[in-house]
Amino acid sequence: MPDFELGKFIRQLRDAALEADAREKVRELMHDMFQDPEAIKAAMPVYENDDELLFEDDSISIWNVRFPPGTHVPPHDHQTTATIGVYDGAEDNHFYLREPGQLVYKTSRRVGPGDVIALKPDGIHSVEAADGKPCRGIHVYLAALTSIERSLFDWNSGVACRYTDENYELMKRVSA
Ligand SMILES: [Fe+2]
Exposed end of the chain (fewer CB within 10 Å): N or C? Predict the structure, then answer.
């Protein structure tokens, strides 16, 4: 795929989200574009906010996400397919399953420059920047994420609560 241009990439993602096989189309686009993470890093603005909404409509929500070192984002779901590509630094993704009365840790994956992962709507992960360095990536959701009701999960019991800024602040951890 040619050089990265944010506006064009957003248009391509928007078109892909309208296809019948949107999940696969978005994943292909992300994989192709993230083959050259340096090109993305060079082209992306440095945003003031950690979470910067780049585009959203009913079919897609596209974000630039920066994870600052030291904060461990609590376990949560997305209630829609999430496709995540990293272009700067690395994020450690920890995956969980809910079992009666507990949240069970399953596995972890480090997602570094050029890597793309996809999570199913009910997939649960917690996320933190790796190696004490900030991490930046593009996160794509196949719905209007800002209006979706989704959950945070208690680190131990797995009890769900609404994903709100207030609950997020109460449940976030300092990275080990
Ligand atoms: Fe997430």
Answer: C
